[in-house]
TrEMBL record, chain A:
Keyword field: Cell inner membrane, Cell membrane, Cytochrome c-type biogenesis, Membrane, Transmembrane, Transmembrane helix, Transport
The organism of origin for this protein: Komagataeibacter rhaeticus
Pfam families, A to Z: CcmB
Subcellular locations according to the entry: Cell inner membrane
GO cellular component, one term: plasma membrane
The protein, known as: Heme exporter protein B
A Gene Ontology molecular function term of the record: heme transmembrane transporter activity
Superkingdom per UniProt: Bacteria
Function: Required for the export of heme to the periplasm for the biogenesis of c-type cytochromes.
Main location: membrane
Membrane topology note: Multi-pass membrane protein
From TrEMBL, chain B:
Span of domain ABC transporter: 2-216
Protein name: Heme ABC exporter ATP-binding protein CcmA
Pfam families named among the record's database cross-references: ABC_tran
Gene this chain is encoded by: ccmA
Source organism of this protein record: Komagataeibacter rhaeticus
Keyword ATP-binding: yes
Keywords from the named record: ATP-binding, Cytochrome c-type biogenesis, Membrane, Nucleotide-binding, Translocase, Transport
Molecular functions per Gene Ontology: ATP binding; ATP hydrolysis activity; transmembrane transporter activity
Biological processes annotated in GO: cytochrome complex assembly
Length: 226, 217
């Protein structure tokens, strides 16, 4: 069994990427929401460059967080509805690894496009270019955390009535540490302080989420098919 | 050999399976019959390791099969009520995961169900019967000794039923076990039948004494 695990994880990733390419609406939807939500702030706050520059880190992070939530309830929901989740479990892959593969797929189809769109949005809000690497490194870690915690929450609410409503209520509180550290690193970079410690804390958060979230999600998947 | 002992399952407050037991050897087949809601599908899911029973044991060659459910999955080919096909993927792409899990040849399996010609069509273009055949191809592909089939004949035409009969025969010839739920006759000669009684609410407190186990053991 052990030797098949990487091949099975790759097969799940390939399958989800193919599906994401063929039904581009989910992926594009999240990215477009990210850009549009970010574009609303200048309209609402007025076009003061000074104000927008100061708020840019927070805006980019909050919008990324909300945009990553959008495709989450379909992540396992579609698998449960058409019976694919049973077949995934019947491949013999441990449920936690199935969950990990799906979380990776979520990152590739949502986190990575958000990361690519974050640069243009930050420039639009007038963020100074020297702090751009801090934004992208922070968001790289942050979107991975979002996929892990989001995947965990998605599997926990799987099969629950009104799971889609419950999902943000579970994910948003759990991801606040990532938001705080990520935005704080950017703030520090903009004011010329050291941004290293904040990113390191973000990395530590990710390091804890990598083993814990798939384990919890695996238990959620098992419970959902019962 | 598959030994099922005293399986009991609650769904909510209701006892759907009450001390169900049977033993099947290599080449045996078992038909699960009974009214809607009698727990046929639930029993299949228990045997597949997808659901934990509230009581009882499933033994495979004398070993507790449900202790390691991921390992048990390798012994089982499960056909659910739904076909579990992704509509946006072609048939071949739909079978990739099962192929990686078992190392089987998807083309051969599609050929034995007469759907090789449809292999590169997206599943959304297929009729209900063709989708069912694709799901059956995945059962073949799993190369597992124990087939658990939830109404395998759903939507199949007469020719495919004959085909299904020969596939069942070949599987049993090779020492495999078939357990199927059904409401219509299936091409499984000398298969045993386990009739699950639909339980009324009044039955919850009093277990059924004369459960037809004796004709199975």
């Amino acid at each position: 069994m052990t030797f098949r695990i990487p091949s099975l994880i790759m097969a799940i990733l390939e399958r989800d990427l193919r599906l994401a390419l063929r039904h581009g609406a989910d992926t594009l939807g999240a990215v477009l929401f990210f850009i549009l939500a970010g574009a609303l702030f200048p309209l609402a706050l007025g076009p003061s460059p000074e104000l927008l520059r100061r708020m840019a880190p927070g805006i980019v992070w909050v919008c990324a967080l909300l945009a990553a939530l959008l495709p989450l309830d379909r992540l396992f929901g579609s698998e449960l509805e058409d019976g694919s989740l049973d077949q995934l479990l019947m491949t013999g892959l441990p449920p936690s690894l199935i969950a990990l593969a799906k979380m990776l797929a979520h990152w590739l189809t949502t986190g990575l496009p958000l990361l690519l769109a974050a640069g243009p949005l930050a420039i639009m809000l007038g963020m100074p270019t020297p702090s751009m690497p801090v934004l992208l490194i922070g968001l790289l870690l942050g979107t991975l955390i979002l996929s892990l915690i989001g995947g965990m929450a998605a599997s926990v609410v799987l099969g629950a009535r009104r799971g889609g409503v419950l999902l943000p209520l579970l994910v948003l509180p759990l991801t606040t540490p990532a938001l705080i550290f990520g935005a704080a690193a950017l703030d520090a970079a903009q004011t010329g302080l050291s941004w290293g410690p904040d990113l390191e804390l973000l990395g530590a958060f990710l390091a804890a989420a990598i083993p814990l979230c798939p384990l919890a999600a695996g238990a959620g998947l098992r419970a959902a098919v019962e | 050999m598959l030994e099922v002992e005293n399986i009991s399952v609650f769904r909510g407050e209701r006892l759907v399976l009450d001390h169900v037991g049977f033993t099947l050897g290599a080449g045996d087949a078992l038909l699960l019959t009974g009214p809607n809601g009698a727990g046929k599908s639930t029993l299949l899911r228990v045997l597949a390791g997808l659901r934990k029973p509230e009581g009882g044991h499933v033994l495979w060659s004398g070993v507790d099969a449900l202790a390691d459910r991921s390992q048990h999955a390798d012994r089982v080919a499960y056909l659910g009520h739904q076909d579990a096909l992704k509509l946006g993927l072609t048939l071949r792409e739909n079978l990739t995961l099962a192929m990686r899990a078992s190392g089987g040849n998807p083309d051969l399996c599609m050929k034995s169900l007469n759907i090789l010609g449809l292999a590169d069509l997206p599943a959304r273009m297929l009729s209900a019967g063709q989708k069912r055949r694709a799901a059956l191809a995945r059962v073949l592909l799993a190369q597992a000794p124990l087939w658990l089939l939830d109404e395998p004949s759903l939507g199949l035409d007469i020719n495919t039923m004959d085909l299904l009969g020969s596939l069942f025969a070949a599987h049993r010839q090779a020492g495999g076990i078939v357990i199927a739920t059904t409401h219509v006759p299936l091409p499984l000669p000398d298969a045993r039948t386990l009739a699950l009684p639909g339980l009324n609410e009044s039955d919850i407190s009093q277990p059924i004494e004369d459960f037809p186990e004796d004709d199975l053991l």
